[in-house]
């Protein structure tokens, strides 16, 4: 089992430098894959109402016998934005998870045309006051949206989970996060196993350290101060993906990997993408 190092969030929570994505992990196979990730050392799990797998995540957590060591994330979907809607959504998620607390609760997408993310966040803050939520955060928020949220609620999100991989290194947003104490989380950190893993620069860096291209990419995330949440249904790959803390990339290597930048891969621009 790998021991994954931690950082401290702006609300004092101890938070892993690497977590586990669960999108598409459903049914008995999903429970087994999530259970194996926990056995392999992952302590941060990423789910969402829209993944349709909160029951599976909750089941794997209960079976692990180490519920208190785990940070279970779920997310408010666009169709449930609004104060009352969010309170209701949280209770429904808790029921499906079969847990008494959502450890990290995120707004999945800002959906700016709906313009209800501020009241959604207020409800999440109140849920935190009641102990039903641990940390409050967001996903797919821009600098302007974060600024508005902080100005209007007085609470800085603990986390902003955004698309990030070597093709989209998010340099400006990460700098804003760093100056406000917001932890970056990278979704699709492996660019969903696109041609990224065959890039020559990544092969060269991996070979210099005697690691795999996947490990070089995930280490790049952590050295840039982000928590990647790779998904793998395969126990061997889960181990490979977590075993990245025994080597350190040089600044030049980090820069070379960031040089692959070419922009978002799937058109998920938070200013225009609306996900219900
Ligand atoms: N907030 C948001 O809007 C979003 C959040 N997310 C979150 O981020 C998580 C991760 O992103 P995701 O889109 O799943 O993509 P990832 O970048 O994590 O890539 C997952 C793919 O890579 C493969 N893979 C994993 N490890 C390896 C390895 N070591 N070698 C070769 N292939 C590998 C997996 O295959 P296999 O399973 O067969 O090993 C799978 O096909 C999601 O599961 C979800 O929790 C994702 C998108 C948006
Ligand atoms: O997986 C998620 O959390 C999502 O939000 C996805 O729907 C994501 O937006 C996507 O797949 C974009 O292509």
From TrEMBL:
Keyword set, alphabetical order: NADP, Oxidoreductase
Domain of life assignment: Bacteria
Protein name from the UniProt record: Diketogulonate reductase-like aldo/keto reductase
Segments forming domain NADP-dependent oxidoreductase: 18-260
Positions of substrate binding: 108
Family matches, as PROSITE patterns: ALDOKETO_REDUCTASE_1, ALDOKETO_REDUCTASE_3
Stated family: Belongs to the aldo/keto reductase family.
Site location (Lowers pKa of active site Tyr): 75
Active site: 51
Matching InterPro entries: AKR, Aldo/ket_reductase_CS, NAD(P)_OxRdtase_dom_sf, NADP_OxRdtase_dom
Pfam families given in the database record: Aldo_ket_red
UniProt KW Heme keyword: no
Organism lineage string: Bacteria, Bacillati, Actinomycetota, Actinomycetes, Micrococcales
GO molecular function: oxidoreductase activity, acting on the CH-OH group of donors, NAD or NADP as acceptor
